[in-house]
Design a protein that fits this description.
heterodimer, A: about 190 residues, mainly alpha, elongated, B: about 575 residues, alpha/beta, 10-stranded parallel sheet
């Protein structure tokens, strides 16, 4: 998770479930930054991320009674957030037809291990985030779910609506897209797409 | 999946060192998704194969880079998110106070200012009732008697069930289908309303339609034609959609007429509701007459047993009215008999010598009434001269503006609560200025025309009337939507319902203020209506765009498997 080692605020959760607005405020203050970052990585614009963060917390407030206390609270938050963001992206993709699934049909080229190593060496965090913004919705969402919120393959499969066996494929294709985006930015000036 | 079953690459070439790991195997290995045996195979291979070991390490580093880049706190929490909770709480407090204060004021003012006086006036005109609901439903123009109560109860039951159903499925339905369901429900209710009546109806169309003398129609009759004559008997109601009509026979029910010219020379046992250019009554109407027309003549032989309520340009009464007379006209002449009282508002009123009035006469007009000395009046005319001064100079004008603003806020409050998601979308669409205005113009002029065309057919009548009312309500809703945007400009954007309602309240007050500015206020109002109507239409249009159900594992989302050649350089030559 984004905040490894963080203890679960069980008392605040219990009070928030009982309707304590202050407790809910505490939870919000604790988790809002991480949730905003999640949305910022998953959605195309900052404004989208802000709106989505607010909507997610409104949704969480309504759904707090459904939270199973035996499970991780932050995992539950990310699950709700992932579903919300993916729903937004998918609806937008369908309406605006910006994305195509044709990419999935293109065979992946073989990466040269040394070239890949060099590219990783040369890429900064900022460049990776910018490259992430260039990815298709599903690729970006899959990477964010896996590498930001540490969601399991089962959870990712559930959120994206794909079979579990395909999660690895989705992630690998997402990595290829990311490498290509980083390559276009000049990190791999001579190597081309890996 | 083959990649997971066989993490090692090309199986064609024999010994392990001659094969390289494919990229998927490396990914699943570092993600700990392989079973123990296969993971050991991969581990063993990478100890011997430098190329695969390099790839594995590169991919591990890639994973760490991704995690690091994503977790890095590169942006502070935006201030509007930081203040989100606090603002929400503050907003809630003042919105509750304002909303309920305005709502209570609006309801009280509307009731005492409009509904109660209307109720009293209508009661005087023979529409008396114990409640407004009864007045509207059971004594309205389309009330057809107690036999319709069963149908009404059925409709109410259906609507209640539908409401529960919608509430239950609201979160499960996609937006377009929910809206389609509502519209289908409306159509179903319309069909239900129409179908039982249709079974007892006679519908006649043509250039000239006639119910001949001696002919008897059992039940109601709907007539759509240019020229209509009813000389026979109708044992039910008559609905006329015609150019000119003459009712010379006997109608045992009500007459509801939309015509250029209507003459009642025969007998009508029920009421006459007339929306015509000219209405002439020379026969007998046992109950009441409600008429909207340019010219109304109650001839000397004409007799109305109940009350007469008229909105006309020219009003001439030579016959007899059994109860009260209420009329608004440009010119009014009374030469006949009115057994009850008279309430009149017109520019000029003349009461001739042959007139006989049994009750008091209240008259408001430009000039004093011209009353013949030999007219038989129970009491002198109570005359109030109409005083003209700019409405802006009257205190009451501002009071009413406040009342209207309160009513708008109340209306918006209800709409934003009933349709929070749709309202938010409409507010978002207001900012698409070009599309909103363009569509607004189209809808503003096109929908009433389409509704009027739909009304020309029996089947389309309900839809046409419903559409017209919907369009009319949308004009008000449009002002609320634009108000919400104005509120957001001032107080910042929000997606939450209650803060949005607060912004709507502030914005509506500002919009209403702008519409009261002399000379330009009307144009502002018109522009706001176009703008908001377009935004609402745009939101509606977008709702009808196809969207895949969230619960379905969409087939297009399943990626195709990796190409079989996804290995590191393929098989190494022996």
């Amino acid at each position: 998770m984004s905040a490894p080692g963080k203890t679960e605020p069980t008392e605040a959760i219990a009070r928030a479930r009982a309707g304590d607005a202050d407790a809910w405020g505490d939870l919000y203050r604790e988790y809002a930054p991480a949730m905003f970052r999640f949305c910022r990585r998953a959605l195309p614009t900052r404004e989208d991320a802000e709106d989505a963060t607010m909507e997610i917390f409104m949704k969480l407030r309504d759904k707090l009674s459904q939270y199973d206390e035996t499970r991780s609270f932050s995992a539950w938050l990310y699950k709700v957030a992932a579903n919300h963001c993916w729903d937004l992206l998918r609806r937008r993709r369908i309406r605006q037809d910006k994305e195509t699934d044709d990419v999935a049909d293109v065979p992946l080229e073989h990466p040269d291990p040394n070239q890949l190593d060099r590219m990783i060496e040369q890429s900064t965090n900022d460049e990776v985030r910018r490259a992430l913004g260039k990815l298709g919705a599903r690729a970006r969402m899959a990477l964010v779910m896996r590498y930001y919120s540490d969601m399991s393959y089962d959870e990712i499969a559930d959120a994206l609506g794909v079979r579990r066996a395909f999660v690895g494929v989705v992630l690998l294709r997402a990595r290829h897209e990311l490498r290509q985006a980083l390559g276009e930015r000049g990190a791999l000036a001579a190597g081309g797409a890996l | 999946m083959s990649d997971m079953d066989n993490p090692l690459g090309d199986p064609a070439s024999g010994d392990l060192p001659t094969k390289h790991l494919d990229e998927m195997a490396c990914l699943l290995y570092i993600e700990r998704q392989l079973d123990r045996a296969r993971a050991q195979e991969v581990s063993a291979h990478t100890q011997d194969c430098n190329q695969c070991r390099t790839l594995l390490r590169a991919m591990e580093r890639e994973s760490r880079l991704l995690t690091r880049a994503m977790l890095e706190e590169d942006e502070a929490l935006p201030s509007r998110l930081a203040q989100f909770q606090e603002r929400t709480r503050r907003s809630m407090q003042w919105i509750w106070g304002v909303a309920f204060g305005l709502a209570a004021t609006g309801v009280y003012a509307l009731y005492t200012g409009y509904i109660e006086p209307w109720e009293q006036q209508l009661a005087q005109a023979g529409f008396g009732s114990t409640s407004l609901l009864n007045l509207l439903i059971f004594q309205g123009a389309f009330w057809k008697g107690w036999q319709s109560v069963i149908t009404l109860l059925e409709v109410v039951a259906m609507l209640t069930l539908g409401g529960f159903g919608l509430a239950f499925f609201r979160r499960r339905l996609r937006r377009g289908s929910a809206l389609a369901l509502v519209l289908t429900g409306f159509c179903a209710v319309g069909a239900l309303l129409m179908s039982p009546a249709a079974s007892a109806q006679d519908v006649r169309k043509g250039d000239t339609t006639e119910v001949r003398s001696g002919e008897t129609i059992k039940g109601d009759i709907f007539i759509f034609s240019h020229h209509t004559r009813i000389d026979g008997t109708v044992d039910g109601d008559v609905y006329l959609f015609t150019q000119d009509a003459n009712i010379g026979g006997h109608v045992k029910g009500d007459v509801i007429a939309f015509a250029q010219s209507l003459r009642v020379t025969g007998d009508v046992d029920g009421n006459v509701r007339s929306f015509t250019n000219n209405l002439t009554v020379t026969g007998n109407v046992t109950r009441n007459v409600l008429a909207f027309q340019e010219i109304l003549n109650l001839d000397p032989s004409g007799k109305i047993g109940g009350s007469l309520t008229a909105f006309a340009q020219s009003f001439n009464l030579d016959g007899q009215v059994g109860r009260n007379l209420l009329f608004f006209a440009q010119h009014g002449t009374i030469s006949g008999t009115v057994d009850g009282k008279i309430d009149a508002k017109c520019e000029a009123l003349r009461i001739n010598g042959s007139a006989k009035v049994g009750g008091p006469i209240h008259f408001e007009g430009e000039n004093a009434p011209d009353v013949a000395a030999d007219a038989k009046l129970a009491a002198p005319v109570d005359f109030h001269k109409t005083v003209h001064k700019p409405k802006y100079e009257e205190g009451g004008y501002y009071v009413w503006q406040v009342i209207w603003a309160a009513a708008f806020v109340l209306f918006g409050l209800v709409l934003f609560q009933v349709m929070p998601s749709f309202s938010k979308e409409a507010v978002v669409n207001v900012e698409h200025y070009g599309a909103s205005f363009g569509l607004g113009v189209l809808v503003f002029f096109g929908v009433p025309i389409a509704a009027a065309i739909a009304c020309a057919t029996v089947v389309g009548l309900f839809i046409g009337i419903s559409t017209f009312f919907l369009w009319y309500a949308t004009l008000y809703y449009a002002q609320i939507i634009v108000g919400a945007l104005v509120g957001q400009w001032l107080l910042g954007r929000t997606r939450e319902t209650w803060p949005l309602i607060g912004r709507m309240a502030v914005g509506v007050v500002i919009v209403r203020l702008c519409t009261t500015v002399p000379h330009v206020g009307g144009w502002v109002k018109f522009g706001v209506m176009l703008w908001g109507t377009g935004a609402i239409s745009l939101a509606l249009y977008r709702r009808f765009q196809p969207a895949i159900s969230a619960g379905l594992p969409g087939a297009p989302s399943v990626p195709t498997p990796l190409h079989p050649n996804t290995t590191i350089g393929g098989a190494v030559p022996a």
